[in-house]
Design goal:
The protein is mostly helical and about 90 residues long. It has five helices and no strands. It is elongated, with a radius of gyration of 16 Å.
């Protein structure tokens, strides 16, 4: 099943250039769906994402939120706790 989701993710990303010119937000949800499927099912994509996020930590915040990643929830809870303790 994992390979099915992985293939569907790559297919969604391949269709983005064709859906982009269509009026409306055609390519944006398709890109988000494809990227999400790849990040959930591909170690290669996860490694690239982690490397990108280390260079640009604020850019990855939206993807973490959208994917409901456990590591993002932990970091947010720790940051909230530190902020509350610092006040």
């Amino acid at each position: 099943m994992r390979y099915t989701w992985l293939t569907l993710g790559w297919l969604c990303l391949a269709l983005v250039p064709f859906a982009g010119p269509i009026p409306g937000p055609g390519g944006i949800p398709l890109f988000a769906l494809g990227a999400g499927l790849l990040l959930k099912n591909s170690r290669w994509a996860k490694k690239r994402y982690v490397a990108y996020k280390r260079k640009r930590p604020h850019h990855g915040a939206w993807a973490d939120w959208a994917l409901r990643r456990e590591s993002a929830k932990r970091r947010a809870a720790i940051a909230k706790q530190n902020q509350a303790g610092g006040d």
